[in-house]
Design brief:
CATH topology of the largest domain: outer membrane lipoprotein receptor (LolB), chain A
Radius of gyration: 21 Å
Number of strands: 21
CATH class of the largest domain: Mainly Beta
Number of domains: 2
Order of helices and strands: EHEEEEEHHEEEEEEEEEHEEHEEEE
Structural class: mainly beta
Protein backbone atom coordinates (compact mmCIF):
# COMPACT_ATOMS: atom_id res chain seq x y z
CA UNK A 1 0.00 0.00 0.00
CA UNK A 2 1.17 3.48 -0.77
CA UNK A 3 0.66 6.19 1.82
CA UNK A 4 -0.85 9.54 0.96
CA UNK A 5 -1.86 12.61 2.89
CA UNK A 6 -4.17 15.51 2.16
CA UNK A 7 -4.66 18.71 4.05
CA UNK A 8 -7.11 21.54 4.62
CA UNK A 9 -7.19 24.52 6.96
CA UNK A 10 -10.00 26.84 7.96
CA UNK A 11 -10.05 29.82 10.30
CA UNK A 12 -12.22 29.96 13.39
CA UNK A 13 -12.84 32.99 15.58
CA UNK A 14 -11.62 33.03 19.15
CA UNK A 15 -15.08 33.77 20.49
CA UNK A 16 -13.95 35.94 23.40
CA UNK A 17 -16.33 37.30 25.99
CA UNK A 18 -17.09 40.37 23.87
CA UNK A 19 -17.41 38.83 20.42
CA UNK A 20 -19.90 36.54 18.71
CA UNK A 21 -19.17 33.06 17.43
CA UNK A 22 -18.44 33.19 13.70
CA UNK A 23 -21.50 31.97 11.79
CA UNK A 24 -21.61 33.45 8.31
CA UNK A 25 -24.59 34.47 6.23
CA UNK A 26 -27.84 36.37 6.70
CA UNK A 27 -30.59 34.94 8.84
CA UNK A 28 -32.84 32.53 6.88
CA UNK A 29 -36.27 31.19 7.77
CA UNK A 30 -36.20 29.47 11.14
CA UNK A 31 -38.50 27.81 13.64
CA UNK A 32 -40.49 30.38 15.64
CA UNK A 33 -40.55 28.17 18.74
CA UNK A 34 -36.78 27.58 18.53
CA UNK A 35 -36.11 31.27 18.05
CA UNK A 36 -38.24 32.09 21.09
CA UNK A 37 -36.16 29.70 23.22
CA UNK A 38 -32.91 31.37 22.15
CA UNK A 39 -34.26 34.90 22.66
CA UNK A 40 -35.47 34.05 26.15
CA UNK A 41 -32.17 32.53 27.23
CA UNK A 42 -30.13 35.40 25.76
CA UNK A 43 -32.28 38.06 27.40
CA UNK A 44 -31.76 36.48 30.81
CA UNK A 45 -28.01 35.73 30.69
CA UNK A 46 -26.52 38.66 28.76
CA UNK A 47 -24.63 40.20 31.65
CA UNK A 48 -22.75 42.54 29.28
CA UNK A 49 -25.82 43.95 27.52
CA UNK A 50 -26.30 47.69 27.11
CA UNK A 51 -27.43 49.25 30.35
CA UNK A 52 -26.11 46.47 32.59
CA UNK A 53 -23.79 47.94 35.27
CA UNK A 54 -20.07 47.26 35.48
CA UNK A 55 -19.30 43.90 37.06
CA UNK A 56 -16.53 41.66 38.36
CA UNK A 57 -16.20 37.93 37.75
CA UNK A 58 -13.74 35.71 39.59
CA UNK A 59 -13.46 32.01 38.81
CA UNK A 60 -11.21 29.06 39.45
CA UNK A 61 -10.86 26.19 36.99
CA UNK A 62 -9.28 22.81 36.52
CA UNK A 63 -7.97 21.36 33.25
CA UNK A 64 -7.87 17.57 33.04
CA UNK A 65 -5.23 16.79 30.44
CA UNK A 66 -5.43 13.03 31.03
CA UNK A 67 -6.44 10.68 33.86
CA UNK A 68 -4.26 11.63 36.82
CA UNK A 69 -2.83 14.71 35.09
CA UNK A 70 -4.47 18.06 35.73
CA UNK A 71 -3.73 21.72 36.39
CA UNK A 72 -5.64 24.42 38.25
CA UNK A 73 -5.90 28.13 37.60
CA UNK A 74 -7.75 31.37 38.26
CA UNK A 75 -9.47 33.92 36.07
CA UNK A 76 -10.54 37.50 36.84
CA UNK A 77 -12.63 39.73 34.57
CA UNK A 78 -13.90 43.26 35.10
CA UNK A 79 -15.97 45.11 32.52
CA UNK A 80 -17.99 48.32 32.13
CA UNK A 81 -21.08 49.34 30.11
CA UNK A 82 -18.79 51.43 27.88
CA UNK A 83 -17.13 48.29 26.48
CA UNK A 84 -13.95 48.44 28.56
CA UNK A 85 -12.76 45.15 30.03
CA UNK A 86 -9.82 43.66 31.89
CA UNK A 87 -8.89 39.98 32.20
CA UNK A 88 -6.18 38.20 34.19
CA UNK A 89 -5.60 34.46 33.90
CA UNK A 90 -3.01 32.45 35.80
CA UNK A 91 -2.10 28.78 36.03
CA UNK A 92 1.09 26.76 36.28
CA UNK A 93 3.28 27.61 33.30
CA UNK A 94 0.91 30.22 31.85
CA UNK A 95 -0.16 33.76 32.71
CA UNK A 96 -1.87 36.40 30.60
CA UNK A 97 -3.37 39.87 30.97
CA UNK A 98 -5.72 41.38 28.39
CA UNK A 99 -7.42 44.77 28.38
CA UNK A 100 -9.61 46.67 25.95
CA UNK A 101 -11.08 50.13 25.60
CA UNK A 102 -13.71 48.86 23.16
CA UNK A 103 -11.67 49.93 20.14
CA UNK A 104 -8.32 48.26 20.71
CA UNK A 105 -7.15 45.27 22.68
CA UNK A 106 -3.78 44.61 24.31
CA UNK A 107 -2.43 41.28 25.45
CA UNK A 108 0.63 40.25 27.46
CA UNK A 109 1.40 36.65 28.33
CA UNK A 110 4.10 34.13 29.12
CA UNK A 111 3.34 32.31 25.84
CA UNK A 112 2.94 33.71 22.34
CA UNK A 113 -0.33 31.86 21.89
CA UNK A 114 -3.47 30.87 23.77
CA UNK A 115 -3.36 27.16 24.72
CA UNK A 116 -6.28 25.11 23.46
CA UNK A 117 -7.80 24.31 26.91
CA UNK A 118 -7.67 28.02 27.81
CA UNK A 119 -9.28 28.84 24.46
CA UNK A 120 -12.14 26.47 25.34
CA UNK A 121 -12.54 27.86 28.86
CA UNK A 122 -12.93 31.34 27.43
CA UNK A 123 -15.27 30.00 24.77
CA UNK A 124 -17.41 28.40 27.48
CA UNK A 125 -17.75 31.82 29.11
CA UNK A 126 -18.97 33.36 25.84
CA UNK A 127 -22.44 32.04 26.57
CA UNK A 128 -24.23 35.30 25.60
CA UNK A 129 -22.22 35.59 22.37
CA UNK A 130 -23.03 31.99 21.44
CA UNK A 131 -26.75 32.63 21.92
CA UNK A 132 -26.53 35.86 19.94
CA UNK A 133 -25.00 33.88 17.06
CA UNK A 134 -27.74 31.25 17.40
CA UNK A 135 -30.36 33.99 17.15
CA UNK A 136 -28.99 34.88 13.71
CA UNK A 137 -28.60 31.30 12.50
CA UNK A 138 -31.06 28.96 10.83
CA UNK A 139 -32.70 26.96 13.60
CA UNK A 140 -34.57 23.73 13.07
CA UNK A 141 -37.76 22.67 14.86
CA UNK A 142 -37.76 21.56 18.48
CA UNK A 143 -36.23 18.10 18.84
CA UNK A 144 -38.00 15.24 20.61
CA UNK A 145 -36.36 14.49 23.97
CA UNK A 146 -36.89 11.82 26.60
CA UNK A 147 -36.84 14.51 29.28
CA UNK A 148 -39.91 16.73 29.27
CA UNK A 149 -38.02 19.33 31.31
CA UNK A 150 -35.59 20.03 28.46
CA UNK A 151 -36.12 21.57 25.01
CA UNK A 152 -33.40 21.15 22.37
CA UNK A 153 -32.79 22.65 18.95
CA UNK A 154 -30.12 22.30 16.25
CA UNK A 155 -28.79 24.74 13.71
CA UNK A 156 -29.34 23.81 10.08
CA UNK A 157 -27.84 24.79 6.74
CA UNK A 158 -24.19 25.22 5.87
CA UNK A 159 -21.34 25.29 8.35
CA UNK A 160 -20.67 23.42 11.59
CA UNK A 161 -23.67 22.12 13.51
CA UNK A 162 -24.51 23.63 16.87
CA UNK A 163 -27.04 22.15 19.27
CA UNK A 164 -28.67 23.91 22.22
CA UNK A 165 -30.71 22.47 25.10
CA UNK A 166 -32.75 24.66 27.45
CA UNK A 167 -34.57 24.23 30.74
CA UNK A 168 -38.26 24.41 29.81
CA UNK A 169 -39.21 26.05 33.11
CA UNK A 170 -36.78 28.96 33.43
CA UNK A 171 -35.32 29.05 29.90
CA UNK A 172 -31.68 28.70 30.98
CA UNK A 173 -29.23 27.16 28.53
CA UNK A 174 -28.14 23.81 29.96
CA UNK A 175 -25.74 22.55 27.30
CA UNK A 176 -24.43 23.42 23.87
CA UNK A 177 -22.68 21.20 21.37
CA UNK A 178 -20.09 23.22 19.45
CA UNK A 179 -19.59 21.59 16.04
CA UNK A 180 -16.76 23.98 15.23
CA UNK A 181 -14.50 22.36 17.84
CA UNK A 182 -16.42 19.13 18.51
CA UNK A 183 -16.92 19.77 22.23
CA UNK A 184 -19.93 20.16 24.51
CA UNK A 185 -20.33 22.97 27.03
CA UNK A 186 -22.56 22.34 30.05
CA UNK A 187 -24.00 25.06 32.30
CA UNK A 188 -25.48 24.72 35.79
CA UNK A 189 -26.25 26.55 39.03
CA UNK A 190 -27.58 29.79 37.54
CA UNK A 191 -27.55 32.67 40.00
CA UNK A 192 -28.66 36.31 39.66
CA UNK A 193 -26.64 39.37 38.77
CA UNK A 194 -29.14 42.21 39.01
CA UNK A 195 -31.93 41.33 36.57
CA UNK A 196 -29.78 38.75 34.76
CA UNK A 197 -28.81 35.15 35.51
CA UNK A 198 -25.51 33.42 34.80
CA UNK A 199 -24.24 29.89 35.45
CA UNK A 200 -21.76 29.43 38.29
CA UNK A 201 -20.59 25.99 37.12
CA UNK A 202 -19.43 25.30 33.57
CA UNK A 203 -17.90 22.20 32.01
CA UNK A 204 -16.12 21.40 28.74
CA UNK A 205 -16.67 17.81 27.60
CA UNK A 206 -14.82 15.95 24.86
CA UNK A 207 -16.68 13.74 22.33
CA UNK A 208 -15.90 10.72 24.52
CA UNK A 209 -17.75 12.40 27.39
CA UNK A 210 -14.55 12.94 29.36
CA UNK A 211 -14.36 16.26 31.16
CA UNK A 212 -11.54 18.41 29.78
CA UNK A 213 -12.20 21.47 31.93
CA UNK A 214 -14.40 22.57 34.81
CA UNK A 215 -14.99 26.22 35.75
CA UNK A 216 -16.48 27.45 39.03
CA UNK A 217 -17.49 31.10 39.28
CA UNK A 218 -16.84 32.10 42.88
CA UNK A 219 -17.75 35.78 42.56
CA UNK A 220 -20.01 37.62 40.13
CA UNK A 221 -20.95 41.01 41.55
CA UNK A 222 -21.47 44.63 40.45
CA UNK A 223 -18.28 46.70 40.29
CA UNK A 224 -19.51 50.06 41.56
CA UNK A 225 -16.35 52.14 41.15
CA UNK A 226 -13.84 50.36 38.90
CA UNK A 227 -10.33 51.79 38.93
CA UNK A 228 -9.87 52.97 35.35
CA UNK A 229 -6.15 52.32 35.54
CA UNK A 230 -6.77 48.59 35.25
CA UNK A 231 -7.91 49.14 31.65
CA UNK A 232 -4.48 50.42 30.63
CA UNK A 233 -2.17 47.95 28.84
CA UNK A 234 0.53 46.43 31.03
CA UNK A 235 4.20 46.57 30.13
CA UNK A 236 5.11 44.30 27.25
CA UNK A 237 1.58 44.13 25.83
CA UNK A 238 0.97 43.64 22.11
CA UNK A 239 -1.82 45.59 20.47
CA UNK A 240 -4.65 43.73 18.72
CA UNK A 241 -7.38 45.32 16.60
CA UNK A 242 -10.90 44.57 17.84
CA UNK A 243 -12.51 42.30 15.25
CA UNK A 244 -15.80 44.15 15.57
CA UNK A 245 -14.08 47.29 14.25
CA UNK A 246 -13.12 45.53 10.98
CA UNK A 247 -15.94 45.22 8.46
CA UNK A 248 -13.92 42.81 6.32
CA UNK A 249 -11.42 40.36 7.77
CA UNK A 250 -9.14 38.38 5.49
CA UNK A 251 -8.60 34.97 7.03
CA UNK A 252 -5.18 33.33 7.30
CA UNK A 253 -3.96 31.86 4.02
CA UNK A 254 -1.43 29.05 3.76
CA UNK A 255 1.74 30.21 1.96
CA UNK A 256 4.28 27.49 2.77
CA UNK A 257 3.34 23.83 3.21
CA UNK A 258 5.67 21.10 4.44
CA UNK A 259 4.42 17.67 3.43
CA UNK A 260 3.71 15.41 6.42
CA UNK A 261 5.58 12.12 6.38
CA UNK A 262 3.23 9.15 6.52
CA UNK A 263 4.65 7.06 9.43
CA UNK A 264 5.98 3.77 8.09
CA UNK A 265 4.50 1.73 10.91
CA UNK A 266 1.07 3.30 10.32
CA UNK A 267 1.28 2.71 6.56
CA UNK A 268 2.42 -0.88 7.01
CA UNK A 269 -0.46 -1.57 9.39
CA UNK A 270 -2.96 0.16 7.12
CA UNK A 271 -3.71 2.79 9.75
CA UNK A 272 -5.53 5.78 8.25
CA UNK A 273 -7.23 8.75 9.79
CA UNK A 274 -8.17 12.41 9.75
CA UNK A 275 -6.09 14.53 12.12
CA UNK A 276 -7.66 17.79 13.25
CA UNK A 277 -5.42 20.26 15.02
CA UNK A 278 -6.02 23.47 16.91
CA UNK A 279 -3.49 26.13 15.96
CA UNK A 280 -3.02 29.81 16.62
CA UNK A 281 -1.68 31.65 13.59
CA UNK A 282 0.32 34.58 14.92
CA UNK A 283 0.85 37.98 13.36
CA UNK A 284 4.04 36.54 11.89
CA UNK A 285 2.10 33.75 10.16
CA UNK A 286 3.64 30.99 12.26
CA UNK A 287 1.30 28.29 13.70
CA UNK A 288 1.71 27.69 17.43
CA UNK A 289 0.02 25.78 20.23
CA UNK A 290 -0.76 22.76 18.03
CA UNK A 291 -3.15 20.41 19.80
CA UNK A 292 -5.03 17.33 18.48
CA UNK A 293 -8.78 17.92 18.81
CA UNK A 294 -10.10 14.57 17.58
CA UNK A 295 -9.43 10.95 18.46
CA UNK A 296 -6.80 9.45 16.16
CA UNK A 297 -3.82 7.15 16.71
CA UNK A 298 -1.02 9.19 18.32
CA UNK A 299 1.39 8.13 15.57
CA UNK A 300 -0.70 10.12 13.06
CA UNK A 301 -1.23 13.18 15.26
CA UNK A 302 2.51 13.38 15.95
CA UNK A 303 3.29 13.24 12.23
CA UNK A 304 0.73 15.97 11.49
CA UNK A 305 2.06 18.25 14.26
CA UNK A 306 5.66 17.78 13.15
CA UNK A 307 4.77 19.00 9.66
CA UNK A 308 2.27 21.76 10.48
CA UNK A 309 4.64 23.48 12.92
CA UNK A 310 6.85 24.23 9.87
CA UNK A 311 4.05 25.69 7.77
CA UNK A 312 3.72 29.41 7.20
CA UNK A 313 0.59 31.51 6.65
CA UNK A 314 -0.32 34.97 5.55
CA UNK A 315 -1.76 36.21 8.86
CA UNK A 316 -5.33 37.27 9.45
CA UNK A 317 -5.72 40.88 8.37
CA UNK A 318 -8.17 43.74 8.84
CA UNK A 319 -8.70 44.74 5.21
CA UNK A 320 -9.53 48.39 5.91
CA UNK A 321 -6.39 49.12 7.92
CA UNK A 322 -4.02 46.33 6.93
CA UNK A 323 -3.51 45.50 10.60
CA UNK A 324 -2.66 41.87 11.28
CA UNK A 325 -4.10 39.87 14.16
CA UNK A 326 -3.79 36.44 15.66
CA UNK A 327 -6.34 33.82 14.63
CA UNK A 328 -7.32 30.45 16.02
CA UNK A 329 -7.80 27.92 13.22
CA UNK A 330 -8.62 24.25 12.75
CA UNK A 331 -6.17 22.45 10.49
CA UNK A 332 -7.17 19.11 8.99
CA UNK A 333 -4.67 16.55 7.68
CA UNK A 334 -5.93 13.34 6.10
CA UNK A 335 -3.76 10.22 6.04
CA UNK A 336 -4.97 7.52 3.61
CA UNK A 337 -3.49 4.45 1.97
CA UNK A 338 -4.00 3.36 -1.59
Amino acid sequence: MKGEWRTAACAAGLGLFLSAFAMAGTKPNTSAASEALVKRALASCDIMANGVPAARLYAHFRINYAPGKSAEGELLRIWTPTGWWHEELAMSGYRSTEVSDGKQEWRAGTLRYIPYPIFLIRRALTLPAALDAAEHAQLGPLLPTSDGAVDCVDTEGHGPRFSYCFDTQDGNLLRMFDGEWNVTFQYADYQPLGTKRFPRRLEVLLPSGRQLAEIHIDQLVPEKHPDLRIFLPVKGSEEEPVKGQCEVIERPKLKKLVKPQYPREAEAAGITGVVQLYAEIGKDGIPRGLWPINSVPPVLSRAAIEAVRRWHYRPQTCKATGATMAARVKVTVLFVTR
